[in-house]
Amino acid sequence: MKVVCVGGGPAGLYLAILLKRQDPAHEITVHERNPEGSTYGWGVTYWRGLLDRLQEHDVASARAIEEASVRWHEGVARVGDLTARQCGDEGFGVGRHRLLDLLADRARTLGVRLEYESEIAAPPAGADLVVAADGVHSALRAHHAGHFGTEVTAGRNHYIWLGTTKVFDAFTFAFTETGHGWIWAYGYGYGGGHSTCVVECSPETFTGLGLDRADRGEGLALLERLFAGVLDGHPLIGRDGASWLNFRTLTNRAWHHGNLVLLGDAAHTTHYSIGAGTTLALEDAMCLAGALREHGRLPEALAAYERRRRAELLSAQSAARYSARWYEDLPRYIHLPPHRMFALLGQRHSPLLPYVPPQLYYGLDKAAGRLEVLRRLKRWLGPRAARTLQARSAAHRG
Fold first, then answer.
1. Other residues' Cβ atoms within 10 Å of the Cβ of residue 170
2. How far are the Cα atoms of 115, 124, 263, 317 from residue 301, in angstroms, in the given order?
3. What are phi and psi of 310, to 5 degrees?
4. Distance from CA of residue 187 to its chain's centroid?
5. CA 40, CA 96: separation in Å to the nearest integer?
6. Whose CA, among 58, 111, 175, 269, lies 20 to 30 Å from 204?
7. What is the CA radius of gyration of the chain?
8. Contact yes or no for 166/42 (Cβ under 8 A)
9. Does residue 7 contact residue 99 with C-beta atoms inside 8 Å?
10. How far, in Å, CA of 90 to CA of 28, rounded?
């Protein structure tokens, strides 16, 4: 099979690796519009579950990624001068640049052709399969916009993706109160003496602090002062073109058209606060490779891939929606004692939490943690109660 993959991010490169391992006779070319070695972003996160799946699919690349990653077992929440720390799942951080280098090296070793500074704006002729892995602004998807039915929903809060030379030893949340409301940061190490630092705030805080008017240097200096307590004198670093954004949640009515299929951010996005973007992109590649292996005809394979991944993504997409909402509703939780606020931060994916008083939810959650019958009731009741309360709220607003 002749495969053309447009986009040299994690999803496109990993799909090329998997397809080449399934059949070395596949002719696979990955086109990347940017020069080799250039990439946006800082570090990306993933969790032990993804690493286990990577090892099942390709031991060589999984081992290389694990060796290049830093890991943590704790989360830290700082609210002003108060700190809460708790153990959590094993997490990993790896530089996006390093991850792409490792996947590119593995793809080349297997015989994949990589074409950098090669922009493909329309589905190329002559390929058996064309993979649109060209991101949220996918040119290939836009070429058939009417078919794919793309919808984009902008979030309320503003955020900016930065780096720092402060190496965090745990996944760190830092909340700072200003005269214009709260502003907060997510920080995690990823190697090379650097960490990612994502800063977020409400629109009122954004304009009140003058971040909408500040130039790059002024904005970074202000953020360094606001987060001096966690940065310990280290600077914040903004790459060229780094700017404040509103997160855009993207969905598509369809994921494939003829021999063209969407992968990764071209197909879907989930709010960065659940740290799942890279994981979901790599899992897309695993699923598509598996569908192509299991089904003899391309239309059946693409339909199976879309059907399976849509179902698998439901829980992550729900978690992302409620996680984003938790931060948009931060004043509801921020004045709780730090250990309680941190506990509800960990529960932010719950569909029930927005509709239950925070202190009551905390008490119920603690009780459910002690009694299995309450845990089962919470899992059963939560989504149903949330749908009822959400419908009533919508009717009241109408």
1. 19
2. 26, 20, 14, 23
3. -60, -45
4. 14
5. 8
6. 269
7. 22
8. no
9. no
10. 35
Say if residues 126 and 2 touch (Cβ distance below 8 Å). Answer: yes
User: Which residues, in sequence order, are CB contacts of 332 under 8 Å at separation 6+?
Assistant: 358
**Alpha carbon distance 392, 398 (integer Å):** 10
Q: φ and ψ at 87, to 5 degrees?
A: -75, 155
Token couple for 170:
């745990």
User: What dihedral do alpha carbons 203, 204, 206, 211 form, nearest 10°?
Assistant: 130
Sign of the CA dihedral running 27, 101, 45, 181: negative
Nearest one of 170, 139, 136 to 154, comparing CA atoms: 136
Q: Which two tokens mark 22?
A: 């399934």
Whose structure tokens read 């829980």?
A: 315
- Give 30's contacts (C-beta < 8 A, 6+ positions apart): 5, 7, 8, 12, 13, 16, 107, 112, 113, 114, 115
The Cα 282–Cα 49 span in angstroms is 12
